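Deliverable D5.2: sample structural annotation.
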Amino acid sequence: MGSPLFSEQFRPPSIPEVKVQGFWEPVVQAVREKSSVVLYDRCIAAGTLEQIDIDVPVPEIRISLTPGGETTQMFWDSDIGKILETFGYLLAGERDALMEEKADRLIDLLAKLQQPDGYLDSWYIRMQPGKRWTNLRDCHEMYNIGHLLEGAVAYYQATGKRKLLDIMIKYLHYVDAIFGFEEGKRRGYPGHEEIELALVKLYRVTGERRWLDLSAYFINERGQKPHYFELEAKERGETVNLTASYTHEYNQSHLPVREQEKVVGHAVRAMYLYCGMADVAMETGDNSLRETLDKLWDDLISKRLYITGGMGPSKDNEGFTEDYDLPNATAYAETCATIGLAFWAHRMLGFGPDIRYADVMERAIYNGALSGLSQDGSRFFYENPLESDGTHNRWEWHRCPCCPPNISRLVASIGTYIYSCAEDAVAVNLYCQSTGSFELCGGKVVISQETDYPWKGKVGITITNEGAGEFALAARIPGWAAGTTAKLNGEEIDIAENSVNGYLVIKRVWGNSDILELDIPLKVRKLYSHPEIKQDVNRVALARGPLVYCLEAVDNELPLNRIYIGADTEFQDEFREDMLGGVTVLTGKARGKVSEDWGKELYREEPAKWCDLDVLAIPYYLWDNRDPGEMLVWVPLDNSCEK
């Protein structure tokens, strides 16, 4: 847990501290030019702004209530929060008068909607007045607070405008007076976690301890007896379970958090809870939370995680089932869940650089999260299966539109994932052409990366030290990158001798133009699944660097499940400038089973004949950006080719 070479509290840089180019620049630009416009316009079309605008008549319910009385309209406020957060991150990189005008309009509407006591939830102010705090389990009030708060912090940091931040602080003073351990307060906590991590962001930007303490309260009270959700259900007169997916495991309230050892329930809720736990543990030094998080992490990555970083196979609970249940064609793998994993892994890096977390963060971001956004930024995935018959395609909007603003805010803030900073160290977690400027050890440090990663593995890191004295630079050596070499100012460095938790760590008084060069092998790798994952038996997946690859019908001759790759098949990587905006593809020889001679027989004694064919694979995150068609990650294995 950490290293004596540097302190154990690492925090992400602010958005303005990192300028991103290279691979991520066109992705951020797509979010700026297309996604941000789509988010705002679709909310207008859906009626979201009517719901928060007190100057128009109360609108009709657009999305019908379930038998339990819930609707996705209850958390429309959260989408506004994520849109404002996205706008904030984009404005921090480049001011845009029209975008700022849209954001200010949303904030003005929220200001007029806020009640004198500070309460601010459009559903319970406009649509169902008088029912506030009656169903924390199902109705998302605190989830809405969390996303509005994250939007407020981002917008304040980008523009210096405090209006929304002050609105949310007023709201939270009210929340703090209602909930807590103290006599006369309610012992409630959110059914959908999110406020916990947002409160830590508020604590960091204001320095006011009460917000960290309130976050810790919500975490520590979760799952305690008597069970709050059971008590409030009785108060509502609820005698039967009206929520089809509801169990205490569904929202991780089945046990107090420190007694939880398995990742269960709704995947997004779980990830947001663990984010809050990690933040509180890091800020307070609570090792009991850290130990719990490590147990949960081990359970997730050893039994419940897709190769793409996706998670949650079941549509029924939008989450987890039993160990090793990882179907491909029916994988739910919600975009928001994978984004949540990236958030959690990022926060675990707050305890110090460690490839256990950074490698998973990278895998999640580059594969299962980025797949949720089309290349032009205008269309989205909610579910991210690892196999498709061609009928699963991107959409422009969704009745539960949580994923579009979530992937947009992740992309817009990608610079904060590249680096993390402690009092006496900078960690390079991701490789991307970028420049980071940080205040460190009483001085200024500028770190510039020159690289074509993830297409090429050479990375040049230039360090400019302006009065920072001695500090540690920790550069991640990916766990999959055997054979990586390093040079400092042209002199080779022994990575093994200078490695801490998978990071190359160099502590010294840095000069004004020191250059650390890394050569990371981006070899094509064949990956095989645990034997307990029955859907992947006798199948193989392809990866190169951080990217998982897939086959698409548009590039291959036969139906994809009739293509077989040999265990000894060699693949070549080739950068194609004219394909998908410029992409490294994998090509190789394969065999296929033909059906032309089969006739009308459904079964026969003679097996299908083989044919030789060429196979082409593209990065998984880019699938369904061309003509609709089949897609496959886990390709049948040609055992007849084994030596």
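Annotation notes: Residues 589 and 614 are 5 Å apart (CA to CA). The chain has a mean pLDDT of 94.
The annotation will be released with the project's public dataset once the embargo ends.
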